[in-house]
Amino acid sequence: MHAAIAREIKHRNQPFSAPCLLLSGGETTVTIGAQSEGKGGRNSEFLLSFAGNISGIENIYCLAADTDGIDGSETNAGGIVDGKTSERIITAGGNISKLLAKHDAWTALKLADDLLVTGPTGTNVNDFRAILITK
After folding, report:
1. Which of 6, 18, 30, 92 counts the highest number of beta carbons within 10 A?
2. What pLDDT is stored for residue 73 in this prediction?
C-alpha cells in the first residue's frame, strides 16, 4: 500500500504533489510461509517488497527501521531503498521473489548495500517509515 501511494504521488500528483514526505509508524505484520529459513525482520521485509513495487521509478526513497536499532534476527535497524534497489539485488546475483518467499530480506538488502546499521539505541518507541518522493 505504501508503494502504491508513492507511485500515485509520483505519476499523478495524488493524493499529494511531489516533493513530499510520507511518514508512518507502527509494527507491520509478516505472515511466515512454508519457507522461513531467511534472515531479517519486518522492516527489511517491508523494504524488499516496497523496492520491488517501485523498481525502475526514479526519485522515490524509503527508509524503514526499528527505533531500538535491531530489526528481527540481524544487527541492522532496517534499511533505505530506492527505485534502483531491485537492479542492485539482481546485479549482485539475487532473486527478489525467491528472497521474499523465504523471508530473506536481510540478504537482499545486503546484496544491494541498502542496510541501515545504527547499533542498539537504548530505546524502543516503535517502527518508523519515511518515504520521500521528489520531482
Report:
1. 6
2. 84
